[in-house]
# Entry
Amino acid sequence: MPKKRKLAFIFGTRPEIIKLSPIIKLCQKKNIPFFCIHTGQHYSYTMDEIFFKELDLCSPRYKLHIRSKAPYMQGDHTGRMLIEIEKILLKEEPYCVVVQGDTNTAFAGALTAEKISTTESYTGRYIKVAHVEAGLRSYDRLMPEETNRFIADHLADFLFAPTAKEKNILLREGIPKSWIHVTGNTIVDVVKQHSLAARQKMTILNKLSLQKDSYLLLTLHRQENVDSKKIFANIIRSIEKIRKKTNLPIIFPVHKRTTKMLDKFSLKIPDGVIAIEPVGLLDFLRLEMDAKLILTDSGGVQEEACTLKVPCVTLRNNTERPETVEVGANIVAGTTPQGILKAAKKMLKAKRNWKNPFGDGKTAERIIKVLMQ
Ligand code: UD1
Ligand code: UDP
# Structure
């Protein structure tokens, strides 16, 4: 049997912890050597630590505490990560760095490994890069995520595309075919592994006096939405209209960035919208699976809604998850009250009979197989 190769998982935010968890746990199960670097991009208990407890994940070997100064200074944030990650990778010498998605952390992890590899002639070190969730494109270069994911893809040796659609995007961008692997999305693994516990153990519906199909769920955190007072106010107005039209409560676990910007812009959450702290994954899955409709600007939540067969309205002008729209699970509504209300009315009547495009829940196994080959 070939020597097992040491992997370095680099993550820093809520969705990265959640979406890498099936791969990390598989490494534990199969005794594959690995270590984790947590950049500390997310750090509040409800955005970070809670997931390690719920998912029973081992503590990262390295915690860097590199917080962003959002809403600005993106370069400073990314730069500090490059400096710290490089020191660790030079010491640990992993075979491959694994990053996920489109955050500053994913970008910094991929770029640092690549920079080390370019010194191979002198240092003798070459570190491969694996990008989980490769090939997604919104074609909106003003999103920090679009730049991050594009560059991570073009630095990667292993590109794990969720579907054939992303594979084709990567091929069109000139990435060699043999580097691309269509694996599904690890979010399906997560949903499959935790839905039963979410259904059987979580009491959040009782705590909030909710019943199945009698509330809507809202999440918001995209920089282009909440860092603009005009757009954020428009979205809040839309939510108020939907609340009045449906007369159903709207549950709103508020992302930390959003709390900060609500405060900064002195915006008020409308009556009937129940703002709560961000919740753990199991509570959130439960809120999603029993919601009548999900309103969101999150990437992961669009995928989960589609996987759980709950209609979704995306509060953005584009999506890098067009599969969700094509199967009829999602509408990209824009950010104006008219567009959002129209989309909500349509999706409230949607038939939940679409096929999940994101795979069968065995994505982590496929990824590990490729990395260990
Ligand atoms: C980041 C990612 C985004 C991803 C999101 C997942 C980038 C550029 N953005 O956005 O792609 O969708 O994570 O949620 O990488 N904050 C806290 N506590 C926390 C985390 C953040 O208070 O635990 C506050 C900080 O004041 C920070 C602000 O939220 O300044 C924004 O955090 P940041 O990580 O820059 O961006 P996110 O909006 O979380
Ligand atoms: N999530 C959570 N608690 C919440 C809101 C979201 O556990 O209160 C989870 C959700 O299930 C999904 C992930 O966070 O797996 C999505 O992360 P986020 O929306 O922050 O980022 P994005 O996917 O847009 O990058």
Q: What stands out?
A: The chain has a mean pLDDT of 97.
